[in-house]
Design brief:
By secondary structure, the chain is mainly α. The protein folds into two domains: 103 residues, no CATH class; 44 residues, no CATH class. Helix content is 55%, strand content 0%. The protein has seven helices and no strands. α1 crosses α3 and α2 runs antiparallel to α5. It starts with 20 loop residues before the first helix and ends with a helix.
Length: 147
């Protein structure tokens, strides 16, 4: 069985407009069927937790739904809309999206990612965590799939 590197960027949003939600769905779905690359958490402490907290979703409920129903992405969004206490107002979604887009990794994380990609830590690369995470995903994909 092969393990997959999640390739949906945290900058991507689905119909609800919540960035990172498609990536969270992909990682949790891959984990639920035992196909997630071991370097990635199904639902982690960073952006995954930020999105769940912002929307008022239970991590356990999300894991259970994905594991038991194996939903498509649009089915996942439809399920989210039915959850008690879910917050899908424009202000909540906007605040979540801005928090994700504005997150900056610590110096050590930035340095590790740039070094793994063969890039100098000289300020020439956008320091945003979304962009650095993309570079990290692409480097891992190249190393493990294409090389």
């Amino acid at each position: 069985m092969s393990n997959h590197i999640p390739m949906i960027s945290s900058a991507v949003a689905g119909p609800l407009g919540v960035i990172h939600l498609p990536r969270l769905w992909q990682k949790a779905s891959l984990e639920a069927c035992g196909k997630l690359h071991p370097d990635y958490p199904g639902i982690g402490k960073g952006y995954d937790s930020m999105v769940l907290a912002a929307l008022g979703l239970s991590e356990a409920a999300v894991r259970e739904f994905i594991k038991s129903k194996k939903p498509s992405y649009t089915q996942f969004e439809a399920w989210i809309k039915t959850q008690p206490g879910v917050k899908l107002d424009k202000a909540t979604i906007y605040k979540n999206n801005v928090a994700i887009q504005g997150y900056i990794h610590d110096d050590a994380t930035r340095q590790d990612i740039l070094a793994a990609c063969g890039l100098a830590d000289d300020g020439s690369v956008n320091p945003g965590a979304v962009d650095l995470n993309n570079l990290d995903d692409w480097a891992t994909f190249h190393k493990e799939v294409l090389s």
